[in-house]
Structures are given as structure tokens and as C-alpha cells.
Amino acid sequence: MADESIECVEIKNSTVVSRNNMQSMLSAGIEDLFVIDFDAIFRNKFNFKIYQDISKYFEITVMSLPLRIEDIMDSFVSGASEIVIPGRIDPNALEDYMRTSDNLVMYYQNPVVAKAFYVLGGRSFFSDRELDFPDIRVYSYSRILVKKGYIRLMDFPREDLDSILI
């Protein structure tokens, strides 16, 4: 598993955007997708119905960066297998997030919050750098980082997310 990767799918204006169409991905045997919900990230408008539709065919990790516990729970109910949460949250809120599910992925933004997430049992991160925690999984949007436990995000729309990828 030295070169594990996952296809990215974007949701913009309540429409699924992908380099590959869903039918060709199903035919190719793809089972997992990394879904970036631009509407949720930039306008706080979650596409729960689309999660539900996509999750009928794929296991989905949803990057929506929810700020409310209710949005996390609604995302899981709508079919998300994992949800990427923001990395700049109050550590007290983090405990509440962690009580909702073990299937959270932390966007690595703040080392203090990331360590608290790890201490609370979080083992999945979203990042473009090498992280110094044992036994973790990292969804990596780096084009050059290839390492055991790192899942390369194929066709990740980095340019469209520059304002939040800091």
C-alpha cells in the first residue's frame, strides 16, 4: 500500500463535479470517494441529499468542515463514512465532536488542537505535510508526499481551496 490513493469529487452549487463520471468509477471498481462540499465549506449549505445519493454506491469521506455537532450527525445519517472537521476549533468543542463518532478526520491546522484530537482517540488527519503521530492515517493533498498510512487525494482542487488551506 505504498501508493494508496482516492478519487476526489466536488459539490458546487448543489451539483456533483468530477473528472470521471460516477458510472465509469463504478465500472472501474472504485469503492471510496473523497467528497469536497464547497457549498458547506464556503456558504454553510450542506448537500445531505447528494451525500445520500453518492453513498448508495461508494464509501464517502466528506470534507465539509462543519462547525455544529448537528451538521456532523446529519452528515453521518446522510451516508458519510467519515467527516473532515476543522482544525481550528475550541478544544472543549473538540470533546463534543469526538463524542459523536470515531470516524472524524481532523484538518491539521493547529498543532495543539491536533494533539488534543489524537489524545482523545482521533487517528485520521487531512494535511499536506508529514505528521508526527504514531499509527495515523492521513488524507494527503500534497503532490509529493508518499508514505505508509498516507492516502493521496487524486485531482484535489487545491487552487479552489487556497483561501482555507493555510
Write out key terms for the chains shown.
166 residues, alpha/beta, eight-stranded parallel β-barrel, 6 helices
Describe this structure in words.
The chain has 166 residues and is an alpha/beta fold. The chain is 28% helix and 27% strand. The protein contains 6 helices and 9 strands; from the N terminus they run E-E-H-E-H-H-E-H-E-H-E-H-E-E-E. The chain has an 8-stranded parallel barrel. The longest helix is centred in the middle third of the chain and has 10 residues, at 91-100. 33% of the residues are buried.
Structure, briefly:
The chain has 166 residues and is an alpha/beta fold.
Taken from the alpha-carbon principal axes, the silhouette is globular
Return residue spans where pLDDT drops below 50 for at least 5 consecutive residues. none
- Largest sheet: spatial strand order: 1-3-4-5-6-7-8-9
Biggest sheet features: 8 strands, parallel, barrel
Ordered list of secondary-structure elements with their pairings:
Layout: E1 5-12, E2 15-17, H1 22-27, E3 32-37, H2 38-43, H3 48-54, E4 59-63, H4 69-77, E5 80-85, H5 91-100, E6 104-107, H6 111-119, E7 124-127, E8 137-140, E9 150-154
Parallel strand pairs: 1-3, 1-9, 3-4, 4-5, 5-6, 6-7, 7-8, 8-9
Antiparallel strand pairs: 1-2
